[in-house]
Design goal:
Layout (H helix, E strand, L loop, with lengths): L1 E6 L6 H11 L11 E9 L7 E10 L2 E9 L2 H21 L8 H12 L20 E2 L1 H11 L3 E6 L5 E6 L5 E4 L17
Parallel strand pairs: 1-2, 5-6
Antiparallel strand pairs: 2-3, 3-4, 6-7, 7-8
Helix pairs in contact: 1-2
Length: about 200
Amino acid sequence: MRTIVKGKNLDVPDAVRQYAERKMRRLERFLDDRTDAILEISVEHHKSTDDSRIAEVTLVIDGQPLRGRADAVTYEAAIDEVVDKVERRAVDHREKPRVRARGPEEKEILSKIADGTADGERERRVVKSKRFAIQPMFEEDAIAEMESLGHAFFVFVNAENERVNVLYRRRDGDFGLIEPIVAGEYTSSKAPRAR
C-alpha cells in the first residue's frame, strides 16, 4: 500500500504528515501492494466558531472506492476519526458475502425456474387483455402517436381504407405496416412513401 498525504490549499506540516502515515498503516491489512490510500487534509474557516480541520480518506478495495471524512479541532483528531471510520467500512466490506458469478448452466436453470418451466414446458396462455378506443388516422399520425407513447407497435384504423392496421418498429429503425386481409381477400399494397 502506498499512502499519499496531501493538503487542499495548504502545506502539510511534517509532524502531521508523519502522524497520518503512521495511522494509515492500520489499513494496510485491507489493501494490496498496488493500492493507493489518499489522505487529504484541509481547513474550513468559520466566523463564529473555531476553524475545523478536515481529513478525507479515499482507498480502493477490490476495485470499489471507499471514502471517509471527519472534522475536528486538530488535524490529529480528524485523522484519528476518519481512519476509524474507514477501518470499520473496510471490515464491513471484507465480511459481507460475495456474490459469485454464475455459470451458463446455473443461469439457464434459474431462468427456467423464474419462467415456471423447470420441470417441463408450461402451457402459454393469455394473462392480460386490454381494450381501447381507436380512431381512424393516417400512417404518419400513427407513427407520431407510437413515438409519443414509446411503444414498439401501434394498432390503429387506417383512415385511407378504414381497416385495422398494425404499425411496428423494425430493427433497422424504420417502420413496418401490417395490413390484415380477410380470408382470401386481397388488397393491393402501396409503394413505400418517402419519410
